[in-house]
Amino acid sequence: MRRVSSLGTWIRSVTSGLIYHPDGTQTTIKSPAVWTLAHRGYSGGGRLDVWVYPTKKAALQAGADLALGCGMDQDEKTVILYRAGRLEAVLERYEELSRPGHLLRVQAAFLQLDEAEAEQHTTVRRTPQRRKRPDPVR
User: Fold this and answer.
1) Of 24, 33, 120, 131, whose CB count within 10 A is highest?
2) How far is CA 42 from the centre of its chain?
3) How do the pLDDT tens digits run along the chain, 138 residues long?
């Protein structure tokens, strides 16, 4: 098995958990993961195809391109979203208009590491929580 550090261009430190504490601080946990694009549609008899990409942006671009290649280029709203660079919205539109069970999603796939590697490659950081300003009363 290859060491995590030797795959550095594909493995990213991705937020795997957020803990909000009563004192107003938050803990962010980041763990090694790869970005994946998953697709289940008409091709492949309903199988789930999964591809790995070096960045979330690359996976989203590939997913949006695939959506257009699967016929979404005929949907005016999808084309507008694509041209505006709203790639996540293109994938959401694909799922909205597709049959139940069809999917097109980008997500992080976290690596299953042994305890020593997990400790070495996972970061935990506690910071003051950013509070949203309350909406003005109208």
Assistant:
1) 33
2) 23
3) 445 555 567 888 888 888 888 888 888 888 889 999 999 987 667 789 999 999 999 999 999 999 999 999 999 999 999 999 999 999 999 999 998 888 999 999 988 877 777 666 677 777 886 655 455 554
Cβ atoms 52, 10 nearer than 8 A: yes
Instruction: Compute the half-sphere exposure of residue 31: CA atoms within 13 Å on the CB side of its CA.
Output: 16
Asked whether 121 and 32 are in contact (CB, 8 A), the reply is yes
Q: Which residues contact 104 (CB under 8 A, 6 or more apart)?
A: 37, 38, 39, 41, 63, 66, 67, 70, 91, 94, 95, 98
Q: What is the model's pTM? A: 0.76
Tokens of 130: 């950013």
Q: What sign has the CA pseudo-torsion 21, 111, 90, 92?
A: negative
* Virtual torsion, Cα 60, 63, 64, 67, nearest 10 deg: -160
Place of tokens 């790869």: 34
Q: Please say whether the beta carbons of 63 and 104 come within 8 A.
A: yes
- How many residues belong to the chain? 138
